[in-house]
């Protein structure tokens, strides 16, 4: 197997077969420790040129390479479709829009350690998955700002029922109000019903965590991704005009309810960009990432793009 990196950032590392008919699934079953070591160093692995002709084989490979413990999507902000077994579509979001860097479910009480992306159909142009090194972001964030976040933590606010985003019955594994109340109590979420069945959720989470394998500190949150100032100017203006910022689908603050400074959000956005790479897809590529070491996003694209996702190895804060 050939191993190489293609950029100065050092990730992802690319693995390619040097022989025909290489059995990637069999190799993965015997090589989890090798895969884990590569992730510890690089944060992400791009498997390219292997034969994984369908989502069934992709699912089999994901289990072999990482864990048989499948992780469900939790507290979704956008819809996804279950394709087969434990394989889902990637975030369904307009092709013309960028999805900013985030660590999957870093704002919930549990999250996947591993995420695998499978390219069923590459876009005609664009559609790369940008990756950002969360270790470097943590280390380079000014000490004063980092300590402010770590001391105060991050407050998340989500609003439902204002005609934007998905309904709470789609974002959470519930079908009625009592189930929603029970879910929030279990997951340390403050719930407030408003007139017209509108719903506001408040909850406080960490800004950084220690990686369970490497024991390094990583920047691990949705503080930038969910912040109102991360939206484009047009979207912000429309929200302010029609429902008000206080009713936006999501927003973030410091844990003491004070606003995160716009210049701090701008700094964080610049650090994600500085320590990032864009990974273009070829058909049957598999991009495996450590969800705590590396944040991911999506570039705009043209044409049909089919990227499938699995999440494995459940992690939790408690």
Overview of this structure, please?
The protein is of the alpha+beta class and 318 residues long. The protein has one domain (1-318): Clavaminate synthase-like (Double-stranded beta-helix). It is built from 9 helices and 20 strands. The strands form 5 sheets. An 8-stranded mixed sheet has the order 1-2-3-17-7-20-5-4, with helices on one face. A 4-stranded antiparallel sheet has the order 6-18-9-16. Helix 1 runs parallel beside helix 3 (55-65). The longest helix is centred in the last third of the chain and has 13 residues, at 262-274. The two termini are 39 Å apart.
Quick structural gist:
With 318 residues, this protein is an alpha+beta fold. It has 9 helices and 20 strands.
Number of folding domains? Answer: 1
| Beta-strand percentage range | 25-35%
Looking at the overall shape, the CATH architecture is 4-Layer Sandwich
CATH superfamily: Clavaminate synthase-like
Please provide the count of β strands. 20
Q: What's the Cα radius of gyration?
A: 20 Å
Mean pLDDT: 94
Strands side by side in the biggest sheet: 1-2-3-17-7-20-5-4
**CATH class categorisation:** Alpha Beta
The termini sit apart by 39 Å
Number of helices: 9
**Which runs of at least 5 residues are low in confidence (pLDDT < 50)?**
none
Most strands sheet:
8 strands, mixed
Structural class given helices, strands, pairing?
alpha+beta
What level of helicity do the residues show? 25-40%
């Amino acid at each position: 197997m050939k191993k190489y990196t293609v950029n100065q950032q050092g990730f992802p590392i690319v693995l390619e077969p040097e022989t025909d008919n290489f059995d990637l699934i069999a190799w993965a079953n015997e090589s989890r420790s090798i895969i884990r070591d590569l992730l510890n160093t690089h944060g992400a692995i791009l498997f390219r040129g292997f034969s994984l002709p369908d989502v069934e084989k992709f699912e089999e490979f994901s289990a072999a390479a990482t864990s048989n413990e499948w992780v469900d999507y939790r507290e979704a902000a956008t819809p996804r479709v279950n394709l087969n077994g434990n394989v889902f579509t990637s975030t369904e979001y307009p092709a013309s829009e960028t999805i900013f860097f985030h660590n999957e479910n870093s704002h919930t009480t549990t999250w996947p350690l591993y995420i695998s992306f499978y390219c069923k159909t590459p876009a005609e142009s664009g559609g790369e998955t940008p990756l950002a090194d969360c270790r470097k972001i943590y280390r380079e964030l000014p000490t004063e700002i980092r300590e402010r976040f770590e001391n105060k933590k991050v407050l998340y606010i989500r609003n439902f029922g204002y005609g934007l985003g998905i309904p709470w019955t789609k974002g959470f594994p519930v079908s009625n109000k009592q189930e929603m109340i029970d879910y929030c109590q279990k997951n340390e979420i403050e719930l407030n019903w408003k007139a017209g069945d509108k719903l506001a959720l408040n909850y406080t989470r960490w800004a950084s965590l220690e990686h369970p394998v490497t024991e390094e500190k990583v920047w691990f949150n949705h503080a930038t991704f969910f912040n109102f100032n991360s939206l484009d100017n047009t979207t912000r203006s429309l929200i302010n005009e029609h429902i008000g910022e206080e009713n936006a689908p999501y927003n973030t603050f410091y844990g003491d309810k004070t606003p995160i400074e716009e210049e701090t959000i701008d700094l964080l956005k610049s650090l994600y960009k500085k320590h990032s790479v864009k990974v273009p897809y070829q058909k049957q590529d598999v991009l495996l990432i450590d969800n705590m070491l590396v944040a991911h996003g999506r570039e705009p694209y043209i044409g049909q793009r089919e990227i499938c996702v699995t999440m494995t190895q459940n992690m939790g804060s408690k």
